[in-house]
């Protein structure tokens, strides 16, 4: 990618200050006249070429050598070291376990931790050799781990002076870590507050010696070193350090000692010298020599320099002081910044002081401080957007510092005198210019209206800023200020001020109303993606609706706008909320879990139908949930209707009844029990009936019981008995038993617990799966009954805790049955009989001995049950049931549900045959015979009457049970019947996309087959279970009756009527967005057809429906026509310049006038003979009112038009602007001599050429103007154009004069 910069004369003059004087002169001369071409710079001067390789071989060689000399030879980052652990120091000495055991585990762990690779080998002396490979850091870490974990540890102490300890530790402990890694030891140094000087080392013997040696070496080094402190007066320190610390550096290099001179900012006289004793002594002697010499020869002079000029004498980072010291050898002492003294002291050789003083004054006077008067409100205009204006000045004069102080009407300048004067004159010019063309105004507006003035996303304030070319500063909320500041062009400021004050006064006349709407309805009112609230805002455009933030949990919705509109909007929203409240009624219906699928229906057909017909929301519990509650939400009446329909389905499917029992409400809580445990136990005991108590505190005594008739009666008796018992005397006791005993205590089908209850009269409640305490058993009843039941249960639990072991004989052929399916039968036995453990002999052994272990009663009961199972297995037979394979799928039912039910009911095993692969079976051919035999064997011919293998279902179990199962299977074989239905009704029975017939098949659980249309047959076949067929046939015939009735009704509804209406009235009859015609259609239940564009009879309207309703619709249309004929039409003259204002944005203004005065307005199209004629149509009295209103609007808008015309004269004309562009464009730009394209051999590169400037696959763009796409003339927007935009261009382009109606 390439870019070309064009340097024009103006920009070149701006940058020429950066050239040398002679260059500058050359450029200026070249630009003033074309004759002096020699003054122009050459191409090579302006764009010097890069050096070529051949030009400077020596330089290339040198640079190459310099480059290559820096490259170090590459070394491998992986190193290998071998460590030896002698036998006597080995931690793990078991030779037999080499390569395994703890030693191997340690090595693996070290490899994981450090990333190094370890290899172990055994030496002849039984010592251990370890080869470690890896990066240096990893190898050192691995070595430390090997020593500490594979080698026995020894310890030793070494004493060195306490002050040397810190040198052993090193900076941030780095030296100590290095020592530990190097010697593979652990070194413990006493804490600073510990007086001990003993350092403890632990590790291998070899490591200990190394560590001791290193520590003693460090200490010995420190013994050789010395520290000397010399007190020298602070004023002589600069002579010791020298300018830029050169002298002290030279002394350190010469002596080898370290000399620490405190910096000027630190008020210390002590100079510290450290190093070896001889070095320190030599350095001290040199320092003292300088000090004595300067003390003897140096004199001082004091001068007064303004405090503000001290910083110029000091210079950046004290460089100026160092510069003076270097040049003159004189030290300049400046008083501290917090001191008020202005005295500067110069100290040095007498003959040098004069020169130093001259330099001090020169530096002090090199900078000046000045100020420019500028109103504080103009400061930001002087600075410019993001400091752009100021940056231009500071880039030219970087040494001048410009400071703006908030609230002060001045700008402070500081810098070199010459530069400062130039900057001052530039800023004064900017201030003068701004003061002449800028103004400001301040208005007072209540802070509560500020955010409304700003508008959503700043839309209002941004519009005012752009329209009037001003800046408006509205104070932030936290300032609580009512002052708004407007700055900019004087006229723009006044206009913006006027508009803002008008807006504020309008807001003061507005009304704010708070609506209390529950937060749960807010989301529903707003709608998805704000669709619903948009409709409300469109309906009431002048009202601002504010919802609270969801996080605030507030119910207050704020409305703001004109009083009447706010009231209308408030009523509308309250009506919306009332409807939502009405639709949020909720009712819960308990339905037995097994009937949920029937309520849902196939593919959700039933539930969908109920939802649609009752207009409710129905939620069913999840499939894996234990809940039976179906929740219905909607209007109260609709919820009740849906509830009754759902209960009707349940009642139809099962013998379900509902009874009400009167129990005093004060007893309800005690009957429900803690967390509903008591009532739940009654429901479970009575076959899962539903018992519904009224809400607490309602005072209602009626309790509802729903379920199968027998179970409901049983639950009713129990509830009444319990209620009577509670009224007389009730007592509760609690006892505990292991959860695995509960099933045994309850017994099969609740038999055991029923015996206890019958004998004692007490109720026993066991915990449910949801209860936290799974051991707690509650006994409820009279005191005596509870005591007896508790005693019986405690005895049972005690006996269960008495664990015994027993054996029984089971034939090995039956073992597989018990242990199959991962011991499912044994798990069921353990669950049912108190966790009894049953152990079978190992597979393969011929033993028949089976061991049972558990509580005595549990073991006995389990033995008895196992005996029953064995008897069943011995008595088991296998029977075959022949049913054609095509019926197998329907017999199995969805997901095999029907077959599972039969196996549960009859306790049998059912095995279906494999499906016969019809395609794979080869055609029957004669078998190949060899020597008169088939495959060497003589085969008897098969029995043709024998059933196919794929049709035989095998049933295993007791004989009587197998026979019952066969009967149940045969009852599931589908039967087919035929029903006669007239052929012309078939398509209505099938329904749209088969929905009708699918619904019937789902409802009656049958398959209905309609003959193909080409057969023209009246016979429909129904296939299904025998007990479903009669219902399906009745349903089908009922549907036929309905369709025949519908046919008759359709004939009555097809009555047609035509009415003649002038086409010019058609739009009025249709109404806006078809509102009027839709209302007539709905009210009279008819279809109304208007003529198409190409119809001959354009005045004919056709009405179709019942005869009496079609007549009523015709009368309604005629009434509208009569009213339209009474209307008059008047033309008025309105200046075409105000048409656009009257029409308004998107036709809003004109629609408002038409709605308010109930008239139609017709504006002329662009190009009309008289563009000022506007037609008003409507009732006479309304037309007069509308005309008066329009003329008033014209008068008001014309004043604005006249004012705009005046403003247009003030603005500069387009021709002068073009002239300015032309004069600016005539600059020749930057010119050079001897350019490659001027020699003739080369030509200037074409930037649009893909050859000169190849791109990476992108096509070459066509040349474009640097100022963007051309604009083809100025656009003039007419009223007609605005109307096209408002109501659709296509409609306007076809219509002659435009008619805008209040309803079209």
Key phrases:
single chain, 1304 residues, alpha+beta, 3-stranded antiparallel sheet, 50 helices, 47 strands, flat
Share of helical residues: 40-55%
* Structure class: alpha+beta
Tell me, what's the shape? flat
Average the pLDDT over all residues and give the rounded result: 77
Number of strands: 47
Enumerate the spans where pLDDT stays under 50 for 5 or more consecutive residues: 1-12, 14-35, 53-71, 919-941, 1214-1227, 1260-1304
Task: Output the number of helix runs.
Answer: 50
**Euclidean distance between termini CA atoms:** 58 Å
Q: What is the strand content?
A: 15-25%
Spatial ordering of strands, largest sheet: 1-3-2
Radius of gyration based on Cα positions: 54 Å
**Biggest pleated-sheet summary:** 3 strands, antiparallel
Task: Give a short summary of the structure.
The chain is an alpha+beta fold.
Give an account of the 3D structure.
There is one protein chain. The protein is 45% helix and 19% strand. With 1304 residues, the chain is of the alpha+beta class. A 3-stranded antiparallel β-sheet has the order 1-3-2, covered by helices on one side. Strands 4-6-5 form a 3-stranded antiparallel β-sheet. The chain has a 3-stranded antiparallel β-sheet with strand order 7-9-8. The N terminus and C terminus are likely disordered.
Strand-helix topology:
Elements: H1 9-15, H2 21-32, H3 43-46, H4 57-70, E1 78-85, H5 101-114, E2 117-122, E3 128-135, H6 136-150, E4 154-159, H7 165-169, H8 174-183, E5 185-188, E6 198-203, H9 205-224, E7 225-231, H10 237-241, H11 246-255, E8 258-260, E9 270-276, H12 277-297, E10 299-304, H13 310-314, H14 319-328, E11 331-333, E12 343-348, H15 350-365, E13 367-373, H16 379-383, H17 388-396, E14 401-404, E15 410-416, H18 417-437, E16 439-444, H19 450-454, H20 459-468, E17 470-473, E18 483-488, H21 490-508, E19 511-516, H22 522-526, H23 531-539, E20 544-546, E21 556-561, H24 563-582, E22 585-590, H25 596-600, H26 605-614, E23 617-619, E24 629-634, H27 636-653, E25 656-662, H28 668-672, H29 677-685, E26 690-692, E27 702-708, H30 709-728, E28 731-736, H31 739-746, H32 751-760, E29 763-765, E30 776-781, H33 783-801, E31 803-809, H34 815-832, E32 837-839, E33 849-855, H35 856-874, E34 876-882, H36 888-892, H37 897-906, E35 909-911, E36 929-930, E37 933-934, E38 952-958, H38 959-971, E39 975-980, H39 986-990, H40 995-1004, E40 1007-1009, ...
Antiparallel strand pairs: 1-3, 2-3, 4-6, 5-6, 7-9, 8-9, 10-12, 11-12, 13-15, 14-15, 16-18, 17-18, 19-21, 20-21, 22-24, 23-24, 25-27, 26-27, 28-30, 29-30, 31-33, 32-33, 34-38, 35-38, 36-37, 39-41, 40-41, 42-44, 43-44, 45-47, 46-47
Helix pairs in contact: 5-6, 6-8, 14-15, 20-21, 32-33, 37-38, 40-41, 43-44
